[in-house]
Specification:
single chain, Jelly Rolls, 3 helices
């Protein structure tokens, strides 16, 4: 009897592990840049590492382990050499804090072939820049509201016929879609986390903590965004291979 119970327990464990691996592969498909920000700005999947600038420092109070804390005036994370040509992309970041001016950037790329941006509108909704900086993108103000000083996962999924902005916070996922066409363009230059460099040094800074920045070369759907927010991302080894250990998410 004890042997039967032991075999049954092992079987359940193996099934659970197999399902976990399947989920991990699914949620990591298309990941081309992943910056956990766990005491460094290394890209664990694409190899384009970043560095802290200005008033940015490491903190132990991240959503998942460590994170970067930004002072709201001079600090940001800078990543050089990231390049992606696409009409389909998902940008993700966990944030805790607030904007210091309208159009504050969460993740941005300026000065390359085309501008790319995810951040706050002047109405505190989440929006994005695409289509050669078209006002049909950044001027779209119908995205979900960003919560002030609460942990939130912000994400924008752009695809050829629409873009969807997501905010997950306090156990709820809110999203809205901008139903316009999107062209193929190229991110070719530096990425900045916590600042949009388009308009001078003294504006568009984020004040607070940024964690777990990710870029996918595909548009994630609603179920995947929810899974990512609630279950975390599989740990990625330096060689780019998935492990079976899931990141542990704190309870906030």
């Amino acid at each position: 009897m004890e042997r039967i119970i032991f075999i049954f327990t092992v079987l359940i464990f193996v099934i659970g592990l197999t399902l976990g691996i399947a989920n991990a592969v699914d949620i990591t498909s298309g990941l081309v840049g992943y910056w956990p920000l766990d005491g460094n700005a290394k890209d664990t999947i694409g190899g384009k590492d970043g560095k802290l600038q200005g008033g940015a420092k490491w903190t132990k109070n991240g959503y998942i382990k460590d994170a970067v804390e930004i002072d709201g005036s001079t600090g940001f994370v800078e990543v050089s050499g990231f390049k992606l040509s696409t009409d389909t992309i998902t940008i993700v970041a966990w944030i805790l804090g607030w904007r210091q001016s309208a159009w504050t950037g969460i993740v941005a790329s300026r000065g390359g072939t085309n501008d790319t941006w995810m951040g706050f509108t002047d109405q505190d909704t989440l929006s994005y820049v695409w289509n050669n900086d078209s006002d049909q993108t950044w001027g779209w103000r119908k995205g979900p509201k960003l919560p002030k000083d609460l942990w939130a996962m912000a994400a924008v999924a752009i695809e050829p016929k629409k873009a969807t902005a997501y905010i997950y916070s306090d156990g709820k996922l809110n999203f809205e879609a901008n139903a316009i066409a999107h062209i193929k363009q190229t991110i070719d230059g530096r990425l900045t986390f916590g600042w949009d460099s388009c308009c001078g040094d003294n504006v568009r800074h984020f004040l607070g903590i940024i964690d777990e920045v990710m870029i996918y070369n595909r548009a994630m759907n609603n179920d995947e965004i929810l899974k990512l927010a609630q279950s975390g991302l599989a740990v990625v080894a330096p060689a780019g291979k998935l492990t079976t250990t899931w990141a542990k998410i704190k309870t906030h």
